Amino acid sequence: MRSTTLGQSGCPVTELAFGAAGIGNLFSAVPDEAAAAAVDAAWDAGVRTFDTAPHYGLGLSERRLGAALRGRPRDAYTLSTKVGRLLEPDEDAHKDSGDDLADGFAVPTAYRRRWDFSADGVRRSIEESLERLGLDRVDIVYLHDPDDHGEQAFREAYPALERLRAEGTVRAIGAGMNQAEMLARFVRDTDVDAVLCAGRFTLLDQRATAELLPEAVARGRSVVIGGVFNSGVLADPKPGATYDYRAVGQDVLDRALRIKAVSERHGVPLRAAALRFPLRHPAVASVLVGARSAEEIEDAAAMRAVPVPDALWAELAEEGLVKPV
């Protein structure tokens, strides 16, 4: 599988990366064996870049991913996690309630999340992530969803990441969000190596093209794209599908079905077109695909390998369905 490096960091990433929110019981429970099998299948497919966060399953994703990777040569893969949410024991929680579904995860609420973009919070978060992972280091650290904490993130958390990078504790730093506008500010105003942009450079949403992607190219920064299926509708567009974690509206569903029809006229599954679309941009280093089973990550690897003719992209642009890259 092709790989490249993030910005000027020298930190390698494979073209397809494994997103570990799913094995943190996103939306529904995943057995331990299935979670381990998903990581094994990613490895067998050539994936060597893995992404997690404390937020995912209140630490379950980090524990499972660390356990699955622990027997692999540490220099053979790149691991990213995130800071900004600290996990603290919740003494009042019913540990068998499993009601963290309010935050999207089918796990007991033994912990609560506390926003913290302070310098001390950054260091504490990384230390606790390493303990859950059971590994000696992470390679990439992203500021996680600082949407409502922007000033503290820029003033305190980001400089803390710079110091950790200078010390050699981490190789690359950045921010990960479900929006493009603040990520463009990180690219423009800081020395991040990369940003992780979820859902904003897809076949249905190209807001990242307005500012983020041009800034990244101009400044030699890398962009990792997540959410290429927009939480489901671009994997299987049908009534009841989800778009940005909510029920899809009819207008978006109609657009997705039109895109599917164009793709299939060129002999390309919609999933393949959705996955390959971001990789056409010179700023994009990797596409992050979440998986909760071996079958899902095997399918993603197969879709990445499907040849997509230029005529498909041209027709989508001519139909006004996507902006030209």
From TrEMBL:
PANTHER family registered for this protein in UniProt: GH17980P-RELATED
Species whose genome carries this gene: Streptomyces formicae
Pfam family, one: Aldo_ket_red
UniProt name for this protein: Aldo/keto reductase
CDD domains attached to this UniProt entry: AKR_AKR15A
Limits of the NADP-dependent oxidoreductase domain: 15-317
